[in-house]
């Protein structure tokens, strides 16, 4: 068994009861796009995830389970970076036709929009070269002709 907290998705990291879902739906912030809706109730403690994927989204259980599996996995990897609180993701019909990468992008975009996930680093980590150094400055002069 590994000790990496991202490698597991324990019961304590899940919104599980009807009362907990209702609390998030009634008191949380709401955001959405074509694929997913996000309800977020900021709180104390570790971030917790709840998922709602109805038969209206995909009548086949295998399709609904794929959506939940992708979102759970992404949440598991992001958990250490998320603001504390309860997150409930409601899948919309477009999610059934979306690929796994599109679902992850939509989920992360909503988390950033809500302010629960910091944005990606801009400009990379390497320092920019000095402005006076250009590649043509270091080339030797060649005779013409």
Keywords:
single chain; 145 residues; alpha+beta; Ribosomal Protein S5, domain 2; 4-stranded mixed β-sheet; globular; RNase_P_CS; nuclease
Secondary-structure blueprint:
Layout: H1 18-27, E1 29-32, E2 36-42, E3 48-52, H2 61-78, E4 85-91, H3 100-114
Helix pairs in contact: 2-3
A few lines on this structure:
By secondary structure, the protein is an alpha+beta fold. The protein contains three helices and four strands.
Write structural notes for this entry:
The chain has 145 residues and is of the alpha+beta class. 19% of the residues are buried. A four-stranded mixed sheet has the order 1-2-4-3, sandwiched between helices. The model has no long low-confidence stretch (mean pLDDT 85). 30% of the residues lie in helices and 16% in strands. One of its GO terms (molecular function) is tRNA binding. Belongs to the RnpA family.
